[in-house]
Predict the structure of 6-phosphogluconolactonase.
Amino acid sequence: MSYQVQRFSTPQAASEALARLLAERLSAGGRAVLGGGNTPLAAYRAFGQADILWNRVQLIASDERCLPEGHLERNDVQIAKAIGTTVLPYTLHSFRAELGPERSAEASEGLVESLLPFDVVTLGLGEDAHTASLWPHVDLGSERLVLPVHGAPKPPPERVSLSPKALSQTQLVVYLVTGASKREALARFLRGEDVPPSRIRAPEVLVFADEAAYPDRV
Ligand SMILES: O=C(O)[C@H](O)[C@@H](O)[C@H](O)[C@H](O)COP(=O)(O)O
């Protein structure tokens, strides 16, 4: 599978590019997966300013931390806060992560199936080359669309995640990767190592990286 890596001078430039891409792909509405974590929040804030048919936009996080509803560390809370919850009539679907990994994975399978195929999937990358809540100890080959996750090396340990199978049901996957701490993980991914992002396959895979994360050599 080929990747197209776009190099940006700063994290801000990379974030603005992601915001523009989301606005373009969702200008008439559509269904998108938004990666969790801190990196993409600036992009989501910029995306929230876009003039698109928000009432036709359906969003879901790539994964969720098993924390109580409304907890500030939940990805759905951080995404809604970044995009803006007041004036925009988009739909942000949430995993029932407060039920715990197994019950929320079961409860969310039908919802995710109803959202397929996605128009665009955006993802982050961890320093250990995880994406969403997909680590090597998770059943990455599962036919399920939503996976329970225990023992996540990144707290909290209990999570629920879209599977590689679900994340591959799209025309376009875009990774936003910034900061020197991600450089080695990105190099491993681009070298074709069997890291979780390598299990996510789509016709178009873009990587938006800033200078700090861009590998000197792949
Ligand atoms: O729940 C999460 O934390 C995310 O889904 C996770 O996969 C994240 O995208 C990476 O860990 C990068 O996180 P940062 O952008 O905060 O470095």
About this structure: The helical segments are 11-25, 41-47, 75-83, 101-115, 164-167, 183-190. The first helix runs from residue 11 to 25. The chain has a mean pLDDT of 96. Residues 31 and 106 are 21 Å apart (CA to CA).
